[in-house]
Amino acid sequence: MKPAKFDYYRPKDLPEALSLLESSGFDGKIIAGGQSLVPIMNMRLATPECLIDINGLQDLNFIESDDRVLKIGTMTRQNTVETSQLIKDQCGLVTEAVAHIGHLQTRNRGTIGGSIVHADPSAELPLVMMALNGTLHISSEDETRSVKAEDFFLTFLTTDMMPNEMLTEVHLPIWKGRVGSSFQEVARRHGDFALVAAACQLELDAHDRISDIRLALGGVEAIPLLISDAKELLAGERLTDAALQKVADVVAGSVEPESDLHASAAYRTQLAKVLTTRVVHQAYERAKGSAVCP
User: Fold this and answer.
1) Which residues form the FAD-binding PCMH-type domain (predicted)?
2) In the chain, how many domains are there?
3) What angle do CA 12, 36, 103 make, to 5 degrees?
4) 120/161 same-domain check
5) How far apart are CA 176 and CA 69, in angstroms?
6) What is the pLDDT of residues 94-118, one digit of tens each?
7) Which residues of 128-162 are buried (b: 16+ CB within 10 A; e: fewer)?
8) Could you write out the three-class secondary structure of 131-191?
9) Would you say residue 294 lies in a domain?
10) How far apart are CA 263 and CA 53, in angstroms?
């Protein structure tokens, strides 16, 4: 199928883009990489009256760091993120997760902002934002505001953004010390959306005890799910098989996946348990220096 008729605009800068969003309201859509929007339009599941092409906004294509926060512009291509040495050194979980997004051709066009705003509950970047306690910077013609990932994702394909707003950059805190991370997912085929995905980042003290941990899962709820009880269970402890089992059991009791054509709810719950043990264990070993963090 072909998309419905639409008007096309290509703003030269952010103020012009925000002005177009303000005037178009619910009838306008931003297009950047188009990896999600174009297929939806071709199937007539979305019929915007106008498209606002922000590929000319190269001021939003950047990767910066001040040693406390890693900053990524919304127009940064996923492949650029994947191959960035700065991101690999300061936030390796992002590097590991992005490699699972679609295929190389997808990552060459897709942007970090587009994937986050699309908010698919099985997608890698929303999950990483939740796992790393990221902050999203959102602009409209009247104001700029910041929203934590935990407050940004509301429900399936829905975020805390109004039609006149645009995601401009994301900020990720840089963890210091003995830090390890891990991202794993299970999909039916390489490049498919994950049936279930898990992301973990943790920090150890000098005695191999966990001082901080964030664990999140995708594909098990309408939004990426942060397992807040993981810190309560593991903080101050060395990782043991018994501790891993406790976390896995908590995850199994926390998730409420739905059955569909690809997997039953029971299978997704089992995947959540298995992937939890894998990512927590691998992050722990990486933090100890037993494995190289990506």
Assistant:
1) 1-177
2) 3
3) 105
4) yes
5) 11
6) 999 999 999 999 999 999 999 999 9
7) bbbbbbbbbbbbbeeeeeebebeebbeeeeebebe
8) HCCCEEEEECCCCEEEEEHHHHEEECCEECCCCCCEEEEEEEECCCCEEEEEEEEECCCCC
9) no
10) 36
pTM: 0.95
Position 108 in a domain: yes
Q: Are residues 62 and 167 in the same domain?
A: yes
State yes or no: pLDDT of 290 exceeds 80: no
Residue 167 tokens read as 């995601």
* Domain identity same for 14 and 33: yes
Question: What's the one-letter identity of residue 217?
Answer: L
Domain boundary at 173, 203, 234, which?
173
Residue 80 DSSP class: H
Any domain includes 118:
yes
Burial class (CB in 10 A: 0-12, 13-18, 19+), 172: buried
How many Cβ atoms from other residues are within 10 Å of residue 266's Cβ? 10
Residues 270 and 183 in one domain: yes
Q: Residues 41-83: pLDDT tens digits?
A: 999 999 999 999 999 999 999 999 998 999 999 999 999 999 9
Last residue of a domain, one of 173, 195, 229: 173
Contact in structure between 184 and 97 (CB atoms under 8 Å): no
Q: Does pLDDT of 11 surpass 80?
A: yes
